[in-house]
């Protein structure tokens, strides 16, 4: 209503004076008269430059670019070929603009497609079902000298079932190690590894095929697909006693002999209820957990005030070990 009064008064004077006389802010008056626009303001239409191509010329350029002769060539290749033949239609940037306007921009050549790698999903509910193995480098006595450490472990118990240190990576060494391990520990249902040359080699693949062992491999460049081997290597290399370099192959083997003896029989692993891998692998962890619980119960009975309202519980043993556990929704769908 005030806007109409301001407009009436502005016919006899100026809008500024009318707003001053009526006590109306001039900015508010102008804003109130503008229509309400929801969303971003429309962009002004850019006038066509005087040197723009005509519609017929644009159609000719598009026809040439999408012709059978040039449809698989880049704009630069097309522009240069036509120029060599004495034909100039427009600049390369104009060709790109015409293609974008018709939804034909981007890579015009046929592209190689790679199907997505299937995510490995492995489940172990007890020892001896699924093994994981990998190879890591150990620094030698000089520059460029490395030893190769092969390690095979049971993903449920974290027990190292086989290992060897060699001068190099070789598929026959891997085959012999796995064959010996299965002769001692039994044949697992599946063996998981990454996509190294030894892991995907024909000797190893043929051995597992002959023994009826399922092969599983990580996706390319996805280290999380082999978490148990990676975690074991971190435990090894971050140990305080791990040296910066080994003086010889014999030194590396002696160190690993001591370390894996400790790892299997003394190291309390957080992933298996703080039991040793050997205890879980050989089935004594249940009895040890019962002894732990009895000790905790006795401590609670002696000093219950020290535990508040919660009775102490010994860490539970895991019921399963997964490599890439599916989501609950996926498990329901496959049930």
Give an account of the 3D structure.
The protein is α/β, with parallel strands linked by helices and 335 residues long. It has 4 domains: 32 residues; 41 residues, no CATH class; 147 residues, Nucleotidyltransferase, domain 5, CATH 3.30.420.10; 40 residues. Helices cover 41% and strands 12% of the residues. The chain has a 5-stranded mixed β-sheet, with helices on both faces. It has a two-stranded antiparallel sheet with strand order 1-7. Pfam families: rve.
Task: Give the helix/strand layout.
Layout: H1 2-10, H2 15-22, H3 26-33, H4 55-65, H5 75-84, H6 92-101, E1 122-124, E2 130-139, E3 146-154, E4 160-166, H7 171-185, E5 190-193, H8 202-211, E6 214-217, H9 227-237, H10 249-265, H11 277-281, H12 285-302, E7 321-323, H13 328-334
Parallel strand pairs: 2-5, 5-6
Antiparallel strand pairs: 1-7, 2-3, 3-4
Helix pairs in contact: 1-2, 7-8
Distance between the termini: 70 Å
- Mean pLDDT metric: 89
Task: Assign the CATH superfamily of the largest domain.
Answer: Ribonuclease H-like superfamily/Ribonuclease H
Binned, the helix content reads: 40-55%
Assign the CATH topology of the largest domain. Answer: Nucleotidyltransferase, domain 5
Structural class computed from helices and strand pairing:
alpha/beta
Q: What are the low-pLDDT stretches, counting only 5+ consecutive residues below 50?
A: none
